[in-house]
Structure formats: structure tokens, C-alpha cells
Specification:
Chain lengths: ~350, ~280
Amino acid sequence: MLDRMLNHADLIEMLDDLARKRRLVGPVRRGERFLYEEVTDPRQLDLLFTYCVFGPRSYLFPPVETLFTFESENGAFRAKPMLDARPLALIGVHPCDLHAIALLDHVFGHEHADEHYLTRRRHTFIVGMDCGRPCTEGVFCADMGCHDTESGFDLMLHLLGEKANGHARYGVRFGTPEGRQWVLYGRRSEVPTLDDERAFDRAQREKAAAFSRRIKTPAEELPALLDRSYDSLLWEATARRCYSCGSCNLSCPTCYCFNILDDLSLDGSQGTRRREWDGCQIKSFATVAGPHNFRPKAASRLRHRIYRKAKWIREKTGLPGCVGCARCDRACTAKINSVEIYNQLAEEV
Amino acid sequence: MTPAPVLHANPGGSVYIPSPARVLRVTRLTEMEKLFELAFLDERPLGHDPGQFVQASALGYGECPISICSSPTQRDRFELCIRRVGRVTNQLHQLAPGAVIGIRGPLGHGFDMHEFHGRDVLVVAGGLGLAPLRSLIQYIVDERARFGQFHLLYGARCPSELLFQEDLVRWRQNPDVNLLITVDRPDEQWRGRNGVVTTLFKDLPKLDPANTNVVIVGPPVMFKFVVLEVLARRIPQSSIYCSLERHMKCGIGKCGHCQANHVYVCMDGPVFKYGELKAMREAME
């Protein structure tokens, strides 16, 4: 069921209003590609984008982030946390990326809650954009159950009818009271007609048919498949091509591993502690003092990533660790393909 | 706003900010290791279980995980044994009494002492593995009446690498502690046993499998051989404990660095039962 209808021009007017109160981040066309970027004018957004090269995670969990600053004081130190409470609006987030954000919410909100992430998150308004069809070749979001979502957005837009940006007409679903309030107070939306509801139902049916299944093993059976595959030769065979470059980690919307590093002023009186994205495919990731590396081989690192994505995160959080966006597969310099890995493992047992 | 994550921590604060602790005393243990006695500036006790760790900061240089090596029975101060191996630990080694460092913790899960009370205990330590075990050993010595027989086996590479030599003398003189020491490479002065730590097992009295807890901490290579000796003495796997080493960055189950198969060593450990480790191939490989 739809809550309201909005046409494109009215949506842009409302985003204009929103931009006065919040930083606006959404898909922007850059040549052949789309990237999530901050814009000052919502007309710079292309809401009919296919997919963004990276997910929106960098706006919630930046690649480099100062955790706190410190200064020396009478032989001791005083530290001040850096928390980013600037209001943000993420516009045009596909269901797969909403699932990815839900995972980040869980990880950073669970036990030892991480205020750096959560402060940003609490001040973020999300306008979802449903995808009526696979955004590009190679995606396996439907296999992971992530091509659709009922939550994780303040409101969700469903493109119905006209395709050109200027004439697009969107069905709107509310996800939160804030989303509902924003649309209703915008005074530009309309009550859906019976025709709108029919168009929405038709679009939903067409969507269900449009997403193919590429992985032979259902997502909930992948943990069991991997349980049987720890000693498979496939890890070594696939890793022969792997450069351990970390492109898969970098492009993944659910990767949240990080390193923590310090900076110090020249006179040593003050400094910062920051965190930076890190990736399990980087060779030094599991190194301890000694130096001893607990995952010295590319094969063990590759296996670790796949286990995390399809098994451990799911078992630990109940949420998908991989949303099937296939960004890792597209980013891979060696054309390593996760779907292929799952299907080859399935052949072995 | 979008369904916000459930929050129960520290709004306005940061879990990453360490608390200032003053260095009270620094003791050189070996060429590589120093013992730091510390107390929080606000005088609160650390309040740890044996086997837990802290993140120790030299602000401006970084932070690293260090196991706590003093007994929880000592409440006004705590001790860390720090091996000089990298940027942070090198900087910490420069510090003299009076200096202030940052401490986050205690972190992780240590030994559940309720599982040890009333039982015989065999502790097997290799090299730096004695450091995380010292809090357990001191606790046992301090609360001796709560335990049955207590055997402590300790192996180091050479005599000069033996940690906590004053403690070793004290424990050896304590009739309630059965301490056996060996070194792999003896020097001319060494009058004790030599060989790897497993050679000490032949000098142990018969263990009671139903009533003995075994704790093993040392380099990964040692672990398998010690477990073999212990299993051969029919100790149930559920009575064997060990503590794993990983380079935790956050220490609170987020950064991913310490993950060994499905577990986060910082949150699920560092203390594990042998039964749990069997499912963690990376723990011992």
C-alpha cells in the first residue's frame, strides 16, 4: 500500500526545503558512473541512477575520522571526543544499501555503543529509492534477500509511470513518523488513486520477476555450505589470482573494519587519535607483534572475507553480511566473483 | 528519524577515550620486558578478572592491547608487563614514574574464577604467556585456601628471558605452590632443568582428571604439544583453558582485527576453553 504520491518537481521543491536544514547527499552522475555526493541543489541529483560505485557508508562511517583530540595538561592529558551532529539527508538509497546501513547500525549500536557512528546516524534522514529492476549485471541482491526492504528508511520512493527525471511520478511509503511528517507538511503530495495503487502492485509484481537468482544455494544455507568448505582447494585456486589489494573491502557497503592511529603536534603538546578504514584482504591486517601473521596467505584472507560476509555476520547478528550489490566483484582487479565461488563450492558437496 | 539503533551508552562520550593512569613504578624484567605499576588518576580500582586486558596508550603514538598481570585482590593499583616490540611499546618503555598514560579497560573475558574454586589447578606458561597468567597465579596464591593442589610449569627460551624472577623465587619458596621451570637454551650459570615446557610433565604428580583445571598460555606452537600432554592425562577438554593473542585495535568487537574464525578474541576471549578452540582453526594455525 502506498501512503502518498509525489511528482518529481514537487519532490525537488521539498528537497530544496530540506537542503536548508540538512546536508544533502545523493546520487550524482560522473561520466558513465554515479557517486553519492554532497550537493547544494537537489537538481544536481540523478534519482534515476543505476547504482553508485560506492554505497553511502562513507557518510555515516567516514574513511578517516578523528575520534578525539587531546592535549597535555600538567603532566596528564585531557581528551575531547569529536562527534559529528550535523544534520544529514541521504537521498536515493537503494534497498541493498539500506540493508547495509542496518548492519552498520547493529554493529556500532550493539554492546559498547560507538557514539561517533551513532551521533551521525541519529541526525540522518533517509529517503529510499526502490529499484524496480536489477541495477546492473552481476548483482545477486535477491539471493541475499536484499532487493527489497520494509524498513531502514524515513520514506521510500517507488518510481511509477514516466521514466524521465523531470516527469517522474513516485509512490511514497512512510517508514517513520519523521518521514511521514516531512511529506505531509510539504503539502505537495497527493493521496494515491486506485490507478496509482494498481500501478504500484503491478510494479511490485514485475520487480519480483525481474530479479533472477544466481546463487544455487539459498542464503540461509550458505553458512552450512561454508562449514563444509573450509578445506576446499577452491580458496587456494581462486586466491592465485588475488592481489590482496583490498578493493573488495573498499567498495563493500557492509565492511566496517578499521585501524586506529595517532597524530602528534611537533612539540608533543597536543594531537588526535583517528580511525581509518582497514580491510581483511590487506596482508598486514592480522599481524601481531613478533611479527606473526595469523592469515599470511591470500587464500586464508579470501576465505575469511567470504566466511564473514555469508556466514559469521549472519550468525552473529541475524542480518545479512553481504547484500548482493556485487560492488566487490566489479571492483576486483582479478575478476574474482563471489557468486562463482558459492556455486563452485556447492558443486563440491 | 530512521529507526535509530538501540542505544545504551555514553551519549556525548566516546568509548575510545582512555582514562589517565599514573606510572607509579617501572621495573626492568628482561632485555625486552618492563613491569609497569599504575593507578588511575581518579583512584578508582581497575576491577578486573584474571585474564582480562587493557588498551594502553602512549598518546600521540598509539594504543596496544596489554594483558593485566596483577591480582584483582590488589585494588589500589594494577600492573602491566610490556614487551618492547613496536612504536607504542617502545614509547611506553621510555616512561619513568610520574608519567601519565591512557588506559581503556578492563576489556574482554578473563577466567571465571568460580570455575576454579575448590579445584586443583595446573598452569602452563611459555615465554610472555606468564604475563597474562600472573594475575591468575597471584590470585590463587592470595586466596590459596580456595584451591586444591597448584602446579605451575614455566618454560622460557633462555635464563635471561625468565620473567618475574622475584615472583619465581617467592613462589618457589611457597610450600603451597609446585613451581617447575625449564629453559630451552641454558647458559653456563643455569642449574635448572632444560628442554621445552612439555618435558616438565614427567615431574608432575598424578593429576586428578575429575578435579583439575588446566590453563595454558604461550606461543601457538607450544599449545598443541601441551594439550597433547594434558589430554593424555585424561583431563576433560572442558577443563582446559587458554588465552589467545591478537592485535586488537578497538578492543570492543568492532574493528575486526582480532577475529579468529567466528570469534572476536577481544569480546569472546581472550580466555577460551579448549572445546571452543577446536572450532577455531585459526586459533592454533
